C-alpha cells in the first residue's frame, strides 16, 4: 500500500491541544544527545506554552541513576535564563521529568512497568498519547521498537508515535533492512525520521518563499539560474566521534541527508494543491526530484581528508574515509536541465557556515557600467542557515544586498518535536525518500572505497583542486534564454 493511501487511514491527532494527556519518553535518556538536545528542546516548548497541561516526560535508559541524577544531567542545558520567572519554569519542568531504568532495550518487563508508572502520574491514564524519542544508535532501533510494541499492545496505533534520529543505514542494502524491520512493528504514519536541518527556520521558509511569491517563482529555473551551491562547512574535527565518523564519513553524515533534503526543497515542483494531505504532497514532490536526478560518478566528485585525521582517536590507521566532499548533481527535467547543483561538506575548514547560494545569470538588460560580470562577481540569492539566519538577494561584490527574511532564534529540534506532537510529517523524511537518496548515492559510495582522498590542511578551504573544479565547470553562458 502506498504512503499516500495509508495516510488517509490514520487519525491525525494533535497531541498539543491543551486538554490532551501526553507522555514524552526519551529512549536513551542518560546519553549525550538526550541531555544536550532532546530535553532542552522539550523544555523550550514547555517554557513557551506549546505543550498540553497534562504532561509527563520519562527518560528510559540502562544507566543505574536516580531521578535526581537525571535532573542534574539536564539542568546545565536548560537553565539558560536568570529571571525568577524562568527559574520557576525550570523547577516546574523538572517536576514532570522521571527516570525509568531497564537492563536493556529488549527488556519488555521494564518497558511495561514504565507504562504503569506513567499511568500513575497522569490525571487521565486511559487517554494518554505517547511520543517516543529514540536517542539511541540505529542498531538498537528495531530492538527498542519491539519493546515499545509490547508495552503498547493494548493502545491504538494512532495514540503513539516514534521519532528516530539518523543515521538511517549506510547504503541501500542496510537502509532496506532497517526499513523492513521497522515496518513490521509500526505504520509509516507512526514513524518520524529526524533530519534536524528540516527543523531550521530558513529551511522551513523555502516552500512558502518559492511558491507564494510570484517574483521569486518566476526566476526559479534554468532560464535565470546558473548554478546552485549548497554548503555545510565546519571548523571542528571529530570531537570524540572518531568511531562513528570513520565508519560513515562526510557523505553519509551530511550530504546524503541534510544536503540532499535541502536540494529537494530548492528544486521540487509546486506540491499538488488538490492533495488531501499537504505533508504528503511536499514529500511526493521531493521524491520526484530524486527520481529525476542522475547518479553521480567519480568525475562528479572530489573527496578530501584533513591532515592529522589518521591520528584521531578510534580512526583506522589506513582509513580512506573522506572528511570533505564536493558532489555535482544534475536534475534531468525541464526546469533544471543544464543547472549543476554542487553539494559541499567538510570538517576542519576555515569557516563555519551552512548556506544555499543560488547564482543567477547576468540580466539581458543591465544598468551596470561594466561590460559584464567577472567570474567572482555574480547576482545571487543566499539562504544563510548558520551561523546567520536570513535570505538575501544581491551582488556578491557590489555591496548591495536586500534581506528578504531573517530570524534571530532557531530551535530546530523543538520545531520538529512540536511537529511530531501535532502529527505534521512535512518536515520529516519518508521511507521512499530515503530509498531514493540511497539508490542515488550508493554506487558512488562503493566506488569511493578504493579511492584515497586528497589531503588538505586544517583551517583551509579544503582540497586545492576544488576551486579549479568549480571554475572549470562553471556555465560560462550567463545570459538567460530568450
Automatic annotation (TrEMBL):
Keyword flag NADP: yes
Substrates-to-products reaction catalysed: D-glucose 6-phosphate + NADP(+) = 6-phospho-D-glucono-1,5-lactone + NADPH + H(+)
Pathway: Carbohydrate degradation; pentose phosphate pathway; D-ribulose 5-phosphate from D-glucose 6-phosphate (oxidative stage): step 1/3
A single GO BP: pentose-phosphate shunt, oxidative branch
Stretch list, region Disordered: 456-482
Keyword Magnesium: no
Glucose-6-phosphate dehydrogenase NAD-binding domain boundaries: 25-203
Limits of the Glucose-6-phosphate dehydrogenase C-terminal domain: 209-474
EC number in record: 1.1.1.49
Keywords carried by this UniProt record: Carbohydrate metabolism, Glucose metabolism, NADP, Oxidoreductase
Group of enzyme by EC: oxidoreductase
Domain of life the protein comes from: Eukaryota
GO molecular function list: glucose-6-phosphate dehydrogenase activity; NADP binding
Homology family: Belongs to the glucose-6-phosphate dehydrogenase family.
Function description: Catalyzes the rate-limiting step of the oxidative pentose-phosphate pathway, which represents a route for the dissimilation of carbohydrates besides glycolysis.
Protein name stated in the entry: Glucose-6-phosphate 1-dehydrogenase
Amino acid at each position: 500500500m502506498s504512503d499516500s493511501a495509508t495516510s488517509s487511514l490514520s487519525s491525525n491527532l494533535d497531541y498539543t491541544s491543551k486538554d490532551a494527556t501526553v507522555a514524552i519518553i526519551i529512549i536513551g535518556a542518560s546519553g549525550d544527545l538526550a541531555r544536550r538536545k532532546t530535553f532542552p528542546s522539550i523544555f523550550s516548548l514547555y517554557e513557551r506554552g506549546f505543550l498540553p497541561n497534562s504532561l509527563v516526560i520519562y527518560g528510559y535508559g540502562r544507566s543505574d541513576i536516580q531521578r535526581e541524577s537525571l535532573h542534574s544531567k539536564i539542568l546545565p542545558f536548560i537553565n539558560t535564563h536568570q529571571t525568577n520567572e524562568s527559574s520557576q519554569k525550570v523547577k516546574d519542568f523538572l517536576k514532570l521529568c522521571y527516570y525509568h531504568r531497564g537492563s536493556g532495550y529488549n527488556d519488555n518487563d521494564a518497558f511495561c512497568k514504565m507504562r504503569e508508572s506513567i499511568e500513575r502520574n497522569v490525571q487521565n491514564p486511559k487517554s494518554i498519547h505517547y511520543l517516543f524519542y529514540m536517542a539511541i544508535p540505529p542498531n538498537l532501533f528495531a530492538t527498542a521498537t519491539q519493546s515499545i510494541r509490547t508495552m503498547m499492545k493494548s493502545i491504538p496505533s494512532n495514540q503513539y508515535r516514534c521519532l528516530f534520529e539518523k543515521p538511517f543505514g549506510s547504503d541501500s542494502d542496510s537502509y532496506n533492512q532497517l526499513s523492513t524491520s521497522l515496518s513490521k512493528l509500526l505504520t509509516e504514519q507512526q514513524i518520524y525520521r529526524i533530519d534536524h536541518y528540516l527543523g531550521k527556520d530558513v529551511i522551513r521558509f523555502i516552500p512558502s518563499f518559492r511558491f507564494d511569491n510570484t517574483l521569486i517563482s518566476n526566476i526559479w529555473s534554468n532560464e535565470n539560474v546558473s548554478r546552485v551551491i549548497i554548503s555545510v562547512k565546519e571548523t571542528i574535527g571529530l570531537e570524540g566521534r572518531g568511531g562513528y565518523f570513520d565508519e560513515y564519513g562526510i557523505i553519509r553524515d551530511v550530504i546524503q541527508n541534510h544536503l540532499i533534503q535541502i536540494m529537494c526543497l530548492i528544486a521540487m515542483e509546486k506540491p499538488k494543491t488538490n492533495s488531501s494531505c499537504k505533508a504528503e504532497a511536499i514529500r511526493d514532490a521531493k521524491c520526484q526530484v530524486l527520481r529525476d536526478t542522475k547518479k553521480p560518478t567519480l568525475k562528479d566528485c572530489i573527496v578530501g581528508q584533513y591532515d592529522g585525521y589518521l591520528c584521531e582517536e578510534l580512526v583506522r590507521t589506513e582509513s580512506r574515509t573522506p572528511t570533505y566532499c564536493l558532489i555535482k548533481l544534475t536534475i534531468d527535467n525541464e526546469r533544471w536541465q543544464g543547472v549543476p547543483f554542487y553539494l559541499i561538506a567538510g570538517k576542519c575548514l576555515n569557516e563555519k557556515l551552512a548556506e544555499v547560494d543560488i547564482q543567477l545569470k547576468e540580466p539581458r538588460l543591465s544598468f551596470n557600467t561594466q561590460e559584464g560580470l567577472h567570474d567572482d562577481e555574480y547576482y545571487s540569492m543566499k539562504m544563510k542557515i548558520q551561523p546567520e539566519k536570513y535570505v538575501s538577494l544581491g551582488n556578491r561584490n557590489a555591496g548591495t544586498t536586500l534581506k528578504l527574511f531573517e530570524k534571530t532564534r532557531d530551535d530546530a529540534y523543538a520545531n520538529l518535536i512540536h511537529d511530531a506532537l501535532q502529527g505534521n510529517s512535512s518536515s520529516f523524511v519518508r521511507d521512499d525518500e530515503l530509498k531514493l537518496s540511497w539508490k542515488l548515492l550508493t554506487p558512488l559510495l562503493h566506488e569511493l572505497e578504493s579511492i584515497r582522498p586528497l589531503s588538505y590542511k586544517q583551517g583551509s578551504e579544503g582540497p586545492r583542486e576544488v576551486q579549479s573544479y568549480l571554475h572549470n565547470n562553471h556555465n560560462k553562458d550567463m545570459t538567460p534564454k530568450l
